[in-house]
Amino acid sequence: MTQEKRNAVFAFGGLLAVGIYILACSSSPSFSPDDTKVLYPAFDPVTGIFGMSVYDRETRRSETSFLLATYARDNDTNTPATPALVRGQWLANGKDIVIACFGPGGTNNEGSVTLTVVPYAAHRPVKTLVLECASEDAGAFFIASPLCVVGDSFLYRSKRGQLVRVDLQTFALVRHQFEDAKGEVILYPTPDGKGVFYLEQNDAQDQGIIFGRLNPEGFSRTPLMTVTNCLEGEIRIAYDREGKTLVFLAADGGKVGLNVWRDGRVAFSRSVDTHSQKLSFGNAVLAASGKSVLASFAKTAGTNATSYGLMEIPFSQAPPREVTLIKQEPAGDDSGVGYFQAAVSHDGKTAALASTYLGCDEGGIRPEDCALFLVDLSDPGWKVTKVPIPAFKAKPSKQK
User: Fold this and answer.
1) What span, in angstroms and rounded, lies between the C-alpha atoms of 355 and 357?
2) What is the CATH number of the domain that holds 283?
3) What is this structure's pTM?
4) Count of domains observed in the chain
5) Quick check: is 393 in a domain?
């Protein structure tokens, strides 16, 4: 994945109309409903193609579940062009996985969205749906939005103000246009996967951001709270499953701020001392206790090094807790932190992060740092399990 592709993705990642950047969850791993398995992005060591693998926490083994290679139009090379981002999510039945990606194609070469339902450990057909994008922006909207899976339905933004709901059993489509929306609508799945939240930014900048619940069947929206005084900088959000707590975590250069909203008002605010280091966040997840937020991060100290890891920021003035998982020397470009995201198990005891996309560029992290990291949040020392992701080694071309 090139830096240009990353920039194109992030350009559509947030509510840019008011200079606020609210990144949706893009590439975090996914725990199975019983927490025994972790779905995560990985390379195929033979072809170098991006795909998805499943790590079995009981056997401590990984296996590849999905690979996808696509060729751009008029591609005359012998190297497949892979999608910019391959993402996956367990379905609630614990037996199927849905894979979503955007790649080249389409009648007008605007790209296409591919959804694949993969039965895990079952002898049933693999089902694939390819949707042509109607506009140049559709792919960027799709990539920058979280995977929103509710039951057997998959929802995504196809263009401004329009949602598409896909039945993952029949692949039947329903499109809905928000005629009454006053700004962009971004969807977020509830932590338990049983509902959908939304953020709606009013085009009138002084009207604030609406956080509410979306009915995935009829697309009706129920506002829960309106945020009127947002933090500045690149913002990540976290929330509980009831929608009563909404957390804004913002990084603006060397400044970090946190606001906790409960029942429509600010319940707590704090800043974080970065010790003169530049700090950026990949995503944020509310801790199981509801008393802190977990966030993946990239921290840069001058040109010496960039470190990637997991941080916990309490809803108090206590100092944050963190663990460094990767250290890149000399310092690299930290914009890839948006692809280094954390997921928390359903029991709240384990965090999972995959560095797959940090290692896909030349000059990226070291091959030995390309891994799935499991952090034991119940362990006082935050014990880390590192599952290596085999790197692709290109074979030398044959001389004619």
Assistant:
1) 6
2) 2.130.10.10
3) 0.88
4) 1
5) no
Token code pair at residue 309: 């890891």
Instruction: With respect to residue 221, please indicate whether it lies within any of the assigned structural domains.
Output: yes
* pLDDT per residue as tens digits for the range 81-90: 555 578 899 9
Nearest CA to 209 out of 239, 236, 229, 188 is that of 229
Average of per-residue pLDDT across 217-233:
86
Q: Would you say residue 76 lies in a domain?
A: no
- 395 within some domain: no
Round to the nearest angstrom and report the end-to-end CA distance of the chain: 30
What range does the domain containing 29 cover?
3-71+81-388
Classify residue 346 by burial, with Cβ atoms within 10 Å: 0-12, 13-18, 19+.
Answer: middle
| H, E, C per residue of the chain | CCHHHHHHHHCCCCCHHHCCEECCCCCCCEECCCCCEEEEEEECCCCCCEEEEEEECCCCEEEEEEECCECCCCCCCCCCECCCEEEEEECCCCCEEEEEEEECCCCCCCCEEEEEEEECCCCCCCEEEEEECCCCCHHHHHHHCCCEEECCEEEEEEECCEEEEEECCCCCEEEEECCCCCCCEEEEECCCCCCEEEEEECCCHHHCEEEEEECCCCCCEEEEEEECCCCCCEEEEEECCCCCEEEEEEEECCEEEEEEEECCEEEEEEEECCCCCEEEEEEEEECCCCCEEEEEEEEEECCCEEEEEEEEEECCCCCCEEEEEEEECCCCCHHHHHHCCEEECCCCCEEEEECHHHHCCCCCCCHHHCEEEEEECCCCCCCEEEEECCCCCCCCCCCC
Tokens of 312: 């916990």
- Band (159; pLDDT cuts 50, 70, 90): confident
Q: If you search the block for the tokens 């740092």, which residue do you land on?
A: 369
CA distance linking residue 102 with residue 112, whole number of Å: 6
